[in-house]
Amino acid sequence: MLGGHSAPKPADEDAQAIADSVKASIEQELGKSFNTFRVNQYTTQVVAGTNYKLKIEADSDFLHAVVFKPLPHTGEAPSLSKVESGKTLNDPL
Questions:
Q1: Which residues are within 8 A (CB) of 84 and not within 5 positions of it... i.e. 6 or more apart?
Q2: By C-alpha distance, which of 64, 67, 65 is closest to 50?
Q3: How far, in Å, CA of 59 to CA of 8, rounded?
Q4: DSSP 6
Q5: What DSSP letter does each residue of 8-77 carry, written as one string?
Q6: Pick from 29, 81, 34: which is nearest to 62 by CA?
């Protein structure tokens, strides 16, 4: 869909790297730390950069996180836009 998010894709190294780059921000936002922090699936939306919606297995919980990755020429790191806890494996992104 033009302007919308892609269909969900299985996790890959790039999506995990995006999640890992904002793990500290997620832990701070939720007030806890996670031993397990593994992307299960994700969607992307191209804007002036890329929005990632990530489904993350975090210990015994599932999280949905939205992360903005700026265009490479900006030199800026990905940033956490939103995170929701209390999700399940079957909740749609």
A1: 63, 64, 65
A2: 67
A3: 22
A4: P
A5: PEE--HHHHHHHHHTHHHHHHHHT---S-EEEEEEEEEEESEEEEEEEEEETTEEEEEEEEEE-GGG-PP
A6: 34
Cβ–Cβ < 8 Å for 22, 78: yes
Residue 80, token pair as written in the block:
């956490």
Largest CA distance in the chain: 38
Distance (Å, whole) CA 73 – CA 42: 24
Local confidence pLDDT in tens for the 93 residues of the chain: 557 889 999 999 999 999 999 999 999 999 999 999 999 999 999 999 999 999 999 999 999 999 999 999 999 999 999 999 999 999 999
Element (H, E) at 84: strand 79-87
